[in-house]
Write a structure and sequence with these properties.
about 120 residues, mainly beta, 7-stranded mixed beta sheet, 4-stranded antiparallel beta sheet, about 0% helix, globular
């Protein structure tokens, strides 16, 4: 199992930007497909963005396409989520997730390792 720790959350005004980071330790990071999910008290945890273990494939929820970019630095064992043009509806706790050798997964059940989450709040 890989251990995951998110950081970078905070309070930002609508239209602003944040970059989330997810530091991984344990097993070889480069062999894990990674993703970001988010959750609010009113909603189930939902998929935001994913990246294959090789980094060659990225995929996004329709609600964030064109605004968010997922990337990874295997040398630093770190996953990133660049979030631009943030909207109040993006307010949530953001979680990173990992799955061994996963190429593409958008369901919560596809991922076996989770971080503790980081709060993102977007004010209007």
């Amino acid at each position: 199992q890989v251990q995951l720790v998110e950081s970078g959350g905070g309070l930002v005004q609508a239209g602003g930007s944040l970059r989330l980071s997810c530091a991984a330790s344990g097993r070889t990071f480069s062999t894990y497909g990674m993703a970001w999910f988010r959750q609010t008290p009113e909603k189930e945890r939902e998929f935001v963005a994913g990246i294959s273990w090789s980094g060659g494939s990225t995929f996004y929820a329709d609600s964030v396409k064109g605004r968010f970019t997922i990337s990874r630095d295997n040398a630093k064992s770190t996953l990133y989520l660049q979030m631009n043009d943030l909207k109040p509806v993006d307010t949530a706790v953001y979680y990173c997730a990992a799955a061994a050798r996963l190429v593409r997964g958008i369901s919560r059940s596809d991922y076996g390792s989770w971080g503790q989450g980081t709060q993102v709040t977007v004010s209007s």
